[in-house]
């Protein structure tokens, strides 16, 4: 009975988180549409996005949902807070303040270093860029260095809110940054048109300022809720002889190093991309954002409520529970991921053109974005597996293994990039194909090494995946033929935008119906369970 309640609670939380995440992703998508319209894919936009990768490392990778600070906070504080209905004890509050102070000191020092050495840092990263691009990118980086401090605080706040099962705000707050950036993009044309104020942002300076203000607004949005829970900020610098802080740091630093390795992969991509045509890095950024739209919703919706559960199950030594929830979570992620891959392959170009192609963003920009997106889409399956199993490692207080696996993939990333870009001349698609293969390597490595901690039931999981892939092959053929038939019949008869909308809708409907029908016919695991839950809700 308890297990059924837990299942229902997780599914309910997953649905609620998915809804909020969808809204957040839609706002983020709108942000990308607006920035694409006003800035296009130029060397100036490349300069901004090159610089943005460094502060985004703090606010998204280190401080975001699923990042090291969030994960370590959940892993430690969920074991120290037995009753979520009560205010945190003095001991817990003291640990919170110690961790927060250490984080602020560390990230402030990091921000100062990047501010001072911004020209040198960008010169290393944009090795093949022009002097003007490097100088502009360094200026952008200096404007955005306050994001480092904010990222550390936001990451801890995310962890505390999720520990207290406040799932909505951590997934809602990123849209604040997107809204501020949208307003920043609209500010220049508004001043020019309505107030006749001659301001130009060809160099994306307003965009960089809006990014910094948006990050600060994320912190301001979460702070009142943290106080409401009962946490009070009282500076505490007891960094030594503190076992709980030591446990936090033992989780945080390897996890931060793992994220740093992941970021190093991005810097390697930046190094190789700087030798390609203008706008290449901007195109990769947009492709990754499209990729993260569905994948981010999936991973966030299921793993945010599952991670505290994994932590509790590890503490209770309930290995069967870990196996059960891992297979259910990853199985459902696999199931939803396959039609996403098929959709990108069949109507991805239509979607890119429909969403982005206006203003400074032309057909050539759409081609570059879709080229990157197509090869990136194949990484969805290993991506969701890697992120899921990483949470299990963190639940076992092990951040070292993910770090070792990530570190071992650096050489592989360089070799793949060199092979696909320099030898095979694949251009932008070579970068994302390399990313997909490295993601697969990380997923396999983490999956094999998990046997040292717990024997997960991979057999059932991957048998179901094999069935899904077989069904996916059939669905892809049906969807591809549908796309071609719609194009043949209506391609020359309709306005481009209307045609793209119509083809996306028709293919999506055919894809969904075919996939669900075949899934039920082949008795895919977990699908029947979800069907029964939905039917019971409808009948009730």
Keywords:
single chain, mainly alpha, 2 domains, 82% helix
Structure description:
This protein has 21 helices and no strands. Helix 11 runs parallel beside helix 16. Mean pLDDT is 82; it is low at 1-5. The protein is globular. Helix content is 82%, strand content 0%. It has helices at 2-39, 43-62, 68-80, 90-116, 118-125, 131-144, 146-163, 168-172, 174-193, 205-229, 243-273, 280-315, 319-356, 363-377, 380-395, 400-408, 410-423, 428-449, 458-490, 496-521, 527-539. The longest helix has 38 residues, at 2-39. It folds into 2 domains: 43-275, no CATH class; 276-540, no CATH class. The protein starts with a helix and ends with a helix. The chain is mainly α and 540 residues long.
Strand portion, in percent? Answer: under 5%
Which sequence of SSEs, written as H and E, runs from N to C?
HHHHHHHHHHHHHHHHHHHHH
Number of helices: 21
**Percent of residues in helices:** over 70%
The backbone outline, from C-alpha atoms, is: globular
According to DSSP, the number of beta strands is 0
């Amino acid at each position: 009975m308890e297990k059924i309640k837990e299942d229902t609670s997780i599914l309910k939380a997953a649905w609620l988180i998915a809804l909020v995440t969808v809204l957040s992703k839609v706002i983020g998508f709108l942000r990308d549409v607006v920035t694409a319209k006003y800035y296009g894919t130029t060397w100036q936009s490349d300069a901004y996005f090159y610089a943005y990768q460094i502060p985004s490392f703090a606010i998204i990778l280190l401080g975001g949902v699923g990042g090291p600070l969030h994960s370590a906070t959940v892993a430690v504080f969920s074991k120290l807070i037995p009753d979520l209905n009560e205010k945190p004890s003095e001991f817990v509050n003291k640990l919170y303040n110690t961790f927060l102070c250490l984080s602020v000191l560390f990230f402030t020092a990091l921000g100062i270093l990047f501010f001072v050495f911004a020209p040198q840092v960008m010169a290393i990263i944009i090795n093949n860029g022009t002097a003007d691009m490097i100088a502009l990118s360094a200026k952008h980086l200096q404007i955005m260095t306050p994001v480092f401090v904010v990222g550390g605080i936001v990451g801890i706040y995310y962890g505390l809110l999720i520990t207290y099962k406040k799932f909505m705000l951590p997934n809602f707050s990123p849209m604040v940054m997107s809204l501020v950036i949208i307003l920043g993009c609209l500010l220049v044309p508004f001043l020019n048109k309505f107030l006749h104020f001659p301001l130009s942002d060809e160099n994306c300076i307003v965009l960089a300022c809006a990014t910094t203000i948006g990050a600060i607004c994320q912190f301001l949005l979460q702070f009142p809720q943290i106080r409401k829970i009962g946490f009070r900020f009282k500076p505490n610098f007891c960094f030594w002889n503190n076992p709980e802080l030591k446990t936090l740091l033992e989780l945080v630093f390897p996890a931060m190093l793992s994220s740093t390795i992941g970021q190093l992969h991005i810097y390697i991509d930046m190094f190789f991309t700087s030798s390609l045509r203008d706008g290449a890095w901007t195109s990769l950024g947009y492709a990754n954002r499209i990729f993260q739209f569905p994948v981010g919703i999936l991973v966030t919706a299921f793993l945010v409520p599952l991670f505290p559960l994994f932590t509790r199950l590890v503490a209770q030594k309930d290995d069967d529970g870990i196996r059960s929830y891992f297979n259910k979570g990853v199985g459902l992620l696999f199931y939803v991921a396959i039609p996403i891959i098929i959709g990108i392959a069949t109507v991805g170009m239509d979607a890119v053109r429909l969403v982005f192609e206006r203003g400074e963003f032309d057909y050539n920009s759409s081609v570059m974005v879709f080229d990157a997106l197509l090869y990136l889409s194949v990484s969805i399956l290993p991506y969701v597996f890697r992120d899921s199993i990483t949470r299990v490692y963190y639940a076992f207080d092990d951040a070292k293994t993910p770090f070792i696996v990530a570190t071992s993939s650096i050489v592989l990333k360089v070799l793949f990039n060199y092979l696909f870009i320099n030898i095979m001349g694949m251009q932008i698609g070579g970068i994302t194909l390399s990313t997909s293969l490295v993601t697969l390597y990380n997923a396999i490595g983490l999956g094999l090494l998990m046997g040292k901690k717990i024997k997960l039931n991979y057999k059932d999981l991957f048998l179901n995946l094999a069935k899904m892939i077989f069904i996916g092959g059939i669905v892809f053929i049906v969807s591809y033929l549908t796309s071609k038939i719609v194009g043949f019949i209506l391609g020359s008869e309709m306005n481009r935008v209307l045609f793209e909308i119509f083809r996306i809708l028709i293919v999506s409907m055919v894809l969904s119906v075919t996939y669900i029908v075949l899934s039920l016919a082949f008795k895919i695991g977990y699908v029947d369970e979800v069907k029964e839950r939905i039917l019971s809700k409808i009948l009730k």
